[in-house]
TrEMBL record:
Pfam families assigned to the protein according to its UniProt record, in alphabetical order: RibD_C
GO MF annotations in UniProt: 5-amino-6-(5-phosphoribosylamino)uracil reductase activity
Name of the protein: Deaminase
Species for this entry: Paramesorhizobium deserti
GO biological process, one term: riboflavin biosynthetic process
PANTHER family: 2,5-DIAMINO-6-RIBOSYLAMINO-4(3H)-PYRIMIDINONE 5'-PHOSPHATE REDUCTASE (PTHR38011:SF11), DIHYDROFOLATE REDUCTASE FAMILY PROTEIN (AFU_ORTHOLOGUE AFUA_8G06820) (PTHR38011)
Residue ranges occupied by any Bacterial bifunctional deaminase-reductase C-terminal domain in the UniProt entry: 2-188
Amino acid sequence: MRKLILQMQMSVDGFVDADGDHDWQVWGWGDDNRWDEALKLDFNAHFRSIDTILLSRMMVEEGYLSHWGNAAKRYPQDPFYAFAQRIIDVQKVVPSDRLEKSRWERTVVRSGDLPREVGALKAEEGNNIAVFGGTGFASALIAAGLVDEFQFYINPAALGGGTRIFDQNGFRKLCLLGSKAYECGIVVNRYAPAA
């Protein structure tokens, strides 16, 4: 069975979105990329291990696919942006009851019934599934017990307020799979839900 892997950038104090306009991420997905080379290599290695991306409806409607499609075109020779081309090439699935069909290449819309749709995706043949979405989408996946691995990109900033993905999910015990610190200040912590 394939694993569903949730990646989130996070502050040291556990927030994924800031209250206010703070520049808290080492790399906020713009052109000013301050990740170090080791982190860039590891990030691309992760993307090579997936063949499907689960996206929230809001994420695709707010331009996730066009953003990374444009990045792949702007930086075709930059080895770091290999992940951007991978985002374009792999299958994308958007669970939604609001969208009737996809207007994005290699992207399918499925019912918004997360447990059923994600369970079916995980049972299909293939590699791991990456999931990207906002706080609400991540929280819904966590609440339904669908996430097999968490990858938290901990940024060297304490926000003191904002939104978190675990606030509505109650107590969760996690098992550490690995932790790696990078020169740019990011620490990537990988966890699995405890049995």
